[in-house]
Amino acid sequence: MKIALIGATGQVGSRILGEALERSHQVTAIARNPASLAPRAGLKVLALDVSKESDKLAAELAGHDVAIISVKYSQVDAAPILEAVKRAGVPRVLVVGGAGSLQVASGVDLVDTPNFPAAYKGEALAARDFLRLLRQETAIDWTLVSPSALLQPGQRTGQFRIGGDQLLVDAKGASHISIEDLALALVDELESPRHSRQRFTVGY
């Protein structure tokens, strides 16, 4: 599959890149500063500021089977990225979202709870706004994956649960997932779609 990965040098994006290349996909890795990406079979590297060069982004996206968006939503307006994907005629987009929009009770999102960390609130709200935008989208086949509340580097175990709009917690009440398993779940969804025009979540 021919994949355009936007945000390929980030913590999550770099794991998605590695997972996709290990599965023999062709990946165009798009980042503002992609110098950290070493040459690999199946990898094309593109230096591009997606927040400022939407016309060039649309031109570069043409011909890809899918676009993956993995950015910091408080720093990058993702709406023009989505428009570039549509203009390029890319039929499908997979999005890495945030945990803040997951529900902890009926009608209550994690980001709206009293103890949600203030340092992460701006990013969580921006990511939720993009999810709401996607839910109004009818012209493209989209899927968004939200991690559990604690997302950090760890092991690629392949042993995780998949949920919908509710925050997943383990038997001890913790909500967590490794970045490696998040990347695995996203590429699984890429290869075997199960959540067309839906958000799903992964957790232990």
Main pleated-sheet profile = 8 strands, mixed
Number of self-contained structural domains? 1
Number of separate strands: 12
Share in helix? 25-40%
How many helical stretches? 5
Q: N-to-C terminal Cα separation, in Å?
A: 29 Å
- Could you list the spans in which at least 5 consecutive residues all have pLDDT below 50? none
Could you explain the architecture of this structure?
The protein has 204 residues and is α/β, with parallel strands linked by helices. It has one domain (2-203): 3-Layer(aba) Sandwich (Rossmann fold). The protein has 5 helices and 12 strands. Strands 3-2-1-4-5-8-12-10 form an 8-stranded mixed β-sheet, with helices on both faces. Strands 6-7 form a two-stranded antiparallel sheet. A two-stranded parallel sheet has the order 9-11. Helix 1 links the parallel strand 1 and strand 2. Helix 1 crosses helix 5 and helix 2 (54-61) packs across helix 3 (79-88). The longest helix has 18 residues, at 118-135. It is globular.
Topology diagram in text:
Layout: E1 2-6, H1 11-22, E2 26-31, E3 43-47, H2 54-61, E4 66-69, H3 79-88, E5 92-96, E6 103-105, E7 108-109, H4 118-135, E8 141-146, E9 150-152, E10 161-163, E11 176-178, H5 179-191, E12 198-203
Parallel strand pairs: 1-2, 1-4, 2-3, 4-5, 5-8, 8-12, 9-11
Antiparallel strand pairs: 6-7, 10-12
Helix pairs in contact: 1-5, 2-3
